[in-house]
Design goal:
Length: about 650
C-alpha cells in the first residue's frame, strides 16, 4: 500500500490528510468549507497536503456532512413514492406523510403476504401510467412493496420499469431487511431525494482527482464508519448520513489504538459523542435518526448536542448564561475576515449604557446561483446593505427596521449571525490565537455590561471564564449520558439528576461527592483542548487528545475497512417445514437443520457479494444465528423463525 488521501467536508472546515503505508500522518491541512461550492474548499485542503509530497496515492477516502445536512434542511431532488399492496392509511405511520412534503405518491396493487406469496399481480402498465401522472419534474422513484423483504419480486419488476423510463430507482428491500414498511418507505424516499446531491459531490471530487493525476479508488464513509466505493454511494447516498461523526470515531481509534473509549468530536456547531467497543463504533439498534426522521440506515449510536466552539451565547429561562444550540460566527473570526467589524465594536463600546443587540452582527452568504426573484423587496434591500460587509444588528433592527426580513433570511441560511462564542472566550483568555483577540475582548466587555447573574458588569474576562466553564459542564454531562445504552428505559428520568451531579462535580461537589467514568475519553475536533481537560478531571477519567485531533475525521475517512452485512430469515410453516426468504424469492425447507444450513450458505454468498461491490479485498465472513421457538401442547417445541446474519469484512481494494 502506498499513500492514502483522506478528505472530510464539515460545516465549518474541510480537512485533508495524507497517510503513509503504515498509517502515520505525513501531512494535514484545513480550509474553510465553501458551502455554495464544496469542491473549492476541498481543492484548497488537498493542495495543501500534497504540496511537497511525493509518491503514488493508492486510496482516497471521503467523509461528508452533505447527506446529513440535506435531510436536516429538507433539501433534495424531486422523488415520487410508489407503494404496492398498502392501504392509503400507511402514510399516517412512521412519519411518512410528514416526510413526503408534497411529493407525489402512487398506490398500486401488488406486494406479498408474510410468507412471500403475491397479494395481487404486478402490472407494469399501471406503474408507467402512475409515473406519467406524477409529472415531468420527478427525477427519481422510491419503491416500497408489502413484505418486500420476504419477496422482492415486485420491487425488482418496478425497478425494471423505472429503468425503461430513464429514472433512478431506490428499492426499500435493498436498504433494509426489516419488516417495518413505513420506515422502509421513508428511508427509500430520502435516498431517492439524495441521489443528485451525492452524485454532484462525487463528480466534482473525481474531477479534482483527475486534474491532479490521482488514479485511485474513491471510497466514501458510511454512517457506521465503514467504507463503500463511490459507485455504491451514488446508489445508496442515504447510507452516508452521519458519515462525518462516524469517520471521527474510526479516526480516534486509529490515532490512539484504544479498543474501548468514549469519543467526543467537538465541532463549530455540535458535539458528537459515541462509544468505541472492541475497536468498532457501537451501533444504534434503531437505525440512524436524522432531521427528526428515524431511518433504517445502520449507523453509529451517537449523542449529539448543540455545543461547539461557535455556539451562540444566550440567556436561559431564568436569565442565566447558556450556550447554543444556535451557531454564531465568532467575533474574533469576523474581525479577522472583515476588519471593519472591529471599528464597529469599538464604537459600540464607546457608547454609554448597554444595548441587548451590542456585539451582534449579520453577514450574507448568498450562493452565486441564487435567483434574485426568490427574495422579497425588503430582503433584497437587506442583502444590498450586507453586500458591502457585515453590519451590526443594532443598525439593521433599530435604524433600518429590517428585523423581519433578517429573521427570514437567517432561517433560510442566506444570512449568518455573528456574536460572542466559546472561541471568543478562548481568545480573551489567551488560550487561542487564531483570529482577532481585540475583537473578542471588546465583545466580552460588551456582553459583560449587559448584566449576568453572579458576574461583574465590568469584568469581560470573568464573562469569558464563565462561558468556558459552562461549555465544560455541558461537555461532561453529555459524556456521562452517552455511555448509557440508547435502549435504557430510565434514560429520560436519569438525565436531569445526572446533569446536576456533573455540575456539582465540576464545581467542587458537596460532601466529597464524585463521579467516575471508567472508559478513557478521546477528545477530537478544533475546540477539544478547550473543553475537555476540566470535564475529564470532573469525571476522574483518563483524557487522550491525540496529536492530529483537529483533523480526526479526515483520518477516519481513509483508515477504516469495508463492512457489509446480509440478514436472511426463514419462517415456520408447520411443525417442521419452513419458508426461506431468499433474494431470488421464497423456497421451502423440510426441516430446521436444512433451513439453517441453506440460510447460512446464502447469507455468506450475499455478504461477500455486497462487500465486493462496496470495494473490499480479502474478505472474511462471520455468521450469527437467532432461533425463535414456540411450545405446543404436550411440551413439543417448534421453530417459528430462523434469522441468520453474515458480516463480511475486508480492507479496501487499492490501486
Amino acid at each position: 500500500m502506498g499513500l492514502r488521501l483522506g478528505i472530510d467536508t464539515g460545516g465549518t472546515f474541510t480537512d485533508a490528510v495524507l497517510l503513509d503505508k503504515t498509517g502515520a500522518v505525513l501531512a494535514a491541512a484545513k480550509a474553510e468549507t465553501t458551502r455554495d461550492d464544496l469542491i473549492v474548499g476541498i481543492d484548497r485542503a488537498v493542495a495543501a497536503v500534497l504540496d511537497g509530497q511525493d509518491g503514488p496515492i493508492d486510496l482516497v477516502g471521503l467523509s461528508t456532512t452533505l447527506a446529513t445536512n440535506a435531510v436536516v434542511e429538507g433539501r433534495g431532488g424531486k422523488a415520487g413514492l410508489v407503494l404496492m399492496g398498502f392501504e392509503p392509511e400507511v402514510l399516517d405511520r412512521g412519519g411518512l406523510s410528514a416526510a413526503l412534503r408534497g411529493a407525489p405518491v402512487a398506490h398500486l396493487k401488488g406486494g406479498h403476504d408474510a410468507n412471500g406469496h403475491p397479494l395481487a399481480p404486478f402490472d407494469p402498465n399501471v406503474l408507467r401510467a402512475a409515473v406519467q401522472d406524477m409529472g415531468k419534474g420527478v427525477e427519481a422513484l422510491a419503491v416500497c412493496g408489502q413484505f418486500a423483504v420476504r419477496n422482492p419480486a415486485h420491487e425488482l419488476a418496478a425497478a425494471g420499469v423505472a429503468a425503461e423510463l430513464g429514472l433512478p430507482c431506490t428499492l426499500s428491500s435493498s436498504l433494509s431487511a426489516r419488516l417495518d414498511a413505513p420506515r422502509r418507505a421513508l428511508t427509500a424516499l430520502l435516498n431517492a431525494r439524495l441521489l443528485p446531491f451525492i452524485a454532484g459531490l462525487l463528480d466534482a471530487v473525481e474531477g479534482l482527482l483527475r486534474r491532479r493525476g490521482i488514479v485511485a479508488p474513491l471510497m466514501v464513509v458510511r454512517g457506521d464508519g465503514s467504507f463503500m466505493r463511490a459507485e455504491a454511494a451514488r446508489l445508496r447516498p442515504i447510507e452516508t448520513v452521519l458519515s462525518g461523526p462516524a469517520a471521527s470515531v474510526v479516526g480516534a481509534g486509529h490515532l490512539t489504538g484504544l479498543p474501548d473509549a468514549v469519543v467526543s468530536d467537538v465541532g463549530g456547531t455540535t458535539t458528537d459523542v459515541a462509544v468505541l467497543r472492541g475497536g468498532r463504533p457501537r451501533l444504534s439498534k434503531e437505525g440512524a435518526s436524522v432531521g427528526g426522521w428515524r431511518t433504517m440506515v445502520e449507523a453509529i449510536d451517537m449523542a449529539t448536542v448543540g455545543l461547539g466552539g461557535d455556539s451562540a451565547l444566550r440567556r436561559d429561562r431564568d436569565g442565566g448564561l447558556a450556550l447554543g444550540p444556535e451557531r454564531a460566527v465568532p467575533l474574533s473570526l469576523l474581525a479577522a475576515l472583515h476588519p471593519g467589524a472591529l471599528a464597529e465594536l469599538e464604537a459600540e463600546l464607546a457608547k454609554p449604557g448597554s444595548n441587548v443587540l451590542d456585539a451582534r452582527f449579520a453577514l450574507a452568504q448568498v450562493p452565486a446561483s441564487a435567483d434574485p426573484g426568490l427574495f422579497t423587496r425588503s430582503q433584497r434591500g437587506l442583502l444590498d446593505r450586507l453586500a458591502e460587509g457585515p453590519r451590526s444588528l443594532a443598525t439593521i433592527v433599530e435604524r433600518d427596521h429590517l428585523e423581519i426580513p433578517l429573521r427570514r433570511l437567517v432561517e433560510r441560511g442566506i444570512v449568518l449571525l455573528a456574536g460572542f462564542t466559546p472561541s471568543d472566550a478562548a481568545h480573551v483568555l489567551g488560550l487561542q490565537t487564531l483570529w482577532s483577540r481585540p475583537a473578542a475582548a471588546i465583545g466580552a466587555a460588551l456582553e459583560a455590561r449587559k448584566g449576568w447573574p453572579g458576574l461583574d458588569p465590568g469584568d469581560g474576562e470573568g464573562l469569558a471564564r464563565h462561558v468556558l466553564a459552562e461549555a465544560r459542564r455541558r461537555s461532561a454531562a453529555v459524556l456521562v449520558e452517552a455511555v448509557l445504552p440508547e435502549d435504557e428505559p430510565l434514560l429520560p428520568l436519569l438525565r436531569p439528576p445526572l446533569r446536576g451531579l456533573v455540575r456539582a462535580a465540576l464545581d467542587g461537589g458537596p460532601g466529597g461527592m464524585a463521579l467516575r467514568l471508567d472508559l478513557p475519553i478521546v477528545a477530537v475536533g478544533g475546540p477539544a483542548k478547550l473543553f475537555y481537560p476540566a470535564a475529564a478531571a470532573a469525571l476522574d477519567a483518563r483524557l487522550v487528545v491525540p496529536e492530529y485531533y483537529a483533523v480526526c475525521n479526515a483520518i477516519g475517512a481513509v483508515a477504516g475497512e469495508v463492512v457489509q452485512t446480509a440478514t436472511l430469515v426463514a419462517t415456520g410453516r408447520g411443525e417442521d417445514s419452513l419458508t426461506l426468504h431468499l433474494p431470488d424469492g421464497p423456497v421451502e425447507a423440510a426441516n430446521p437443520d436444512e433451513a439453517r444450513r441453506r440460510l447460512e450458505d446464502a447469507a455468506v454468498v450475499l455478504a461477500r457479494r455486497r462487500a465486493a461491490e462496496a470495494g473490499a479485498a480479502e474478505v472474511a465472513v462471520e455468521t450469527s444465528v437467532e432461533v425463535a421457538r414456540a411450545t405446543l401442547d404436550g411440551n413439543r417445541e417448534i421453530v417459528m423463525e430462523i434469522r441468520v446474519t453474515a458480516t463480511a469484512r475486508g480492507r479496501p481494494a487499492i490501486g
